[in-house]
Structure formats: structure tokens, C-alpha cells
Amino acid sequence: MSTILALEKISKRFGAVVVANGIDLSLGNGEALGIIGPNGAGKTTLFGMITGTVAPDSGRVLFDGRDVTHETPERRCRAGIARSFQIPQPFGGMTVFENLVVAAAFGGGRRERDVYAACAELLERCGLADKANRPAASLTLLDRKRLELARALATRPRVLLLDEVAGGLVEHETAALVDLVKQVRASGVSIVWIEHIVHALIAAVDRLVVLHGGALIAEGDPAEVIRRPQVAEIYMGIEADA
User: Fold this and answer.
1) Of 7, 108, 196, 238, which sits 20 to 30 A from 63 (CA to CA)?
2) pLDDT band for position 237 (50/70/90)?
3) Beta strand residue intervals within 29-180, DSSP E
4) Cα 227 from Cα 26, distance rounded (Å)
């Protein structure tokens, strides 16, 4: 499997707090990668360094073999790196459809009149077609999360970064979201998913890594990684010998 995204010796600290300490991580073309770790482990900061909103202190970010470490978020987005946010951030006064048009035209670098059909198709895929003309601020949490995902997809990404998209959802809503993520992955988009809802990750990703103390402490098959005593102790607060 060829590599679409790679972090090489990425390091970042905020004062005395080290959030990334020489991390090496790669994502294959068409792969779905899950990332877990305790709060404050640096997971969202890692996304910031991939998308360009956070500058690493050292190391490189490679996208499709090209060094993008110093490129702007806008250039990275138009090259094919998109992300969602843990707390959905739609333009509340715009309709659902208008939110997608903005993402497709400005994030994707296309003319507005050229994106309407693609945005309509995305509304169908993400279960939002019947809400196209509603103000985004009026949506339920599940639909705001669907819109957050749809807006990222509207930029036509090759790599999609998902940040806690299942947080705050009840079980059947989480299942619906997992199905949607699987559909996105099946379309050929490579995915990196940060999530605390571990069973959602295990259902959707090929590989799982655990981030703790600025380092990757475990990596491999999701079901196997989550059973490791070190992971249970650090991530779930369960004594390794319990």
C-alpha cells in the first residue's frame, strides 16, 4: 500500500508540556487509521500540524510524497487534506446547502456555480437532503455532525481527518455515523479518526495507534491494541494487573 500522508519526527511543545516528541506516523492510500489517547495527549494538536493551523517545532509533514510542512491551511485543503472539528462549527445563519457551497467553492477552490450538483449529492449521502434549506443553527447534534462531515467532504479530500465525530451521540446515532464513515472510506478517501468511543473506531478502522505523553505507545490491529494491559492502564484507567 502506497503512503498518502506521513509525519516524520514531528515534535511540538507548549512551554513545559510536550504534546509530540519525534512522532513518526504514516497513512496508506485508502486506509482508515484510528487514534486514541487520554485527554491532553496531543491528538487534536497533531491534526493541527497536519492541516497547517499549528506549526511543528521540528519534523516534516509529507502529503503524497511532497513536503507541506510550511504550506498554509488553505493550500493543504485544496491539495486534498480536510478535517472536521470536535465541536461542529457551521455558519449558523446560512442554510445547510449554503454551508456546503461555501466549503466546496472556497475550500475546494472551485467556482460556485460548478459545485451545486456535487453539494446536492453530498446532502443525499449524508442524510441531510430534507434539511437543505434549514438554517444550520437549527439542526440537532447528530445532523450538525453530519453537516460537519459533509462540509469536509465538499472540499473533495484525499485524506479526511475526523475529530471526535461520535462524541455526544447516543448508540443508534453513533451506529449511523459509523456507517457513513465506512461509506466515505469505501469511496477511496483515506481517513484518520480521533475518537473516545472506542467501539466505533474498532468497527471502522484498519489500524489503531495510542498517543500518550507525546509519543505513540502502541500500534496495530484495533482489537488487539485495545486489549494490551498498558493501553488499558493509561487510556482507560484500569490497573494492568487487575
Assistant:
1) 196
2) low
3) 32-36, 58-63, 66-67, 81-83, 159-163
4) 23
**Confidence check: pLDDT of 138 > 80:** yes
Question: Is residue 152 located within the same domain as residue 162?
Answer: no
Boundary residue ending a domain (156, 189, 214): 156
Identity of the residue numbered 159: V
Mean of pLDDT over the chain: 92
Residue 239 has pLDDT above 80, yes or no: no
Number of domains in the chain: 2
Half-sphere exposure in the Cβ direction for 110 (13 Å, CA): 19
Hey, what's the torsion of the CAs at 32, 107, 93, 165, to 10 degrees?
10
Q: Is the pLDDT of residue 240 over 80?
A: no
Angle separating helix axes 171-186 and 141-154, nearest 10 degrees: 10
Percentage above 90 pLDDT, the chain: 75
- Of 16, 33, 42, 3, which Cα lies nearest the Cα of 208? 33
Whole-angstrom distance, CA of residue 189 vs CA of residue 160: 7
Q: Decide: pTM greater than 0.90.
A: yes
Nearest to 39 by CA among 54, 65, 17, 22: 17
Closest C-alpha to 180, from 131, 119, 118, 126: 126
On the question of pLDDT at 201 being above 60, the answer is: yes
3-class DSSP state for residue 82? Answer: strand
Indicate the SS3 state at residue 136. Answer: helix
Q: Assess whether 18 and 95 both reside in one domain.
A: no
